[in-house]
Amino acid sequence: MTSKSEESKIFQHSVYETVKLIPSGHISTYGHIALLLGKPGNSRQVGQILKLLHFKPTATVEQDSSSAYDYGSVPWWRVINSQGKISERGIPEMQRQRELLISEGVLVSDDGRFKVLNMRDVGWFEDDVEVKEEEEEH
């Protein structure tokens, strides 16, 4: 039987692996990532998981003695809210996400609303993805 913390960790890593599938120059939404993972009501949880990546170093970081994850390989900036905007979390962080998106060719407004202007062209809304499951060690 899987504990709550193990389930949470599995979901967290599934979010990371799904976000890594978003191609450069494209975006998706927190809700769509949750939907792809079979948890359509967990868009806020997806947002919280990705929010923490802004503060992680780009190298592999040990979470505990039994696992490590390369947080720097997760393009968190490619996920926005369902309104097509960068989620509010402070202007410096929002500006950083805007700059990363622009560097990949995504058009983002500079009027303080941080809205993606070419969502129709850059949206990544796959119907189904195959996420690598973590192998259990015995």
UniProtKB/TrEMBL annotation:
One of its GO terms (biological process) is DNA repair. SUPFAM superfamilies: Methylated DNA-protein cysteine methyltransferase, C-terminal domain. The keyword DNA damage applies. Pfam families: DNA_binding_1. This is 6-O-methylguanine-DNA methyltransferase. It comes from the Eukaryota. Residues 11-106 form the Methylated-DNA-[protein]-cysteine S-methyltransferase DNA binding domain. Keywords: DNA damage. One of its GO terms (molecular function) is catalytic activity.
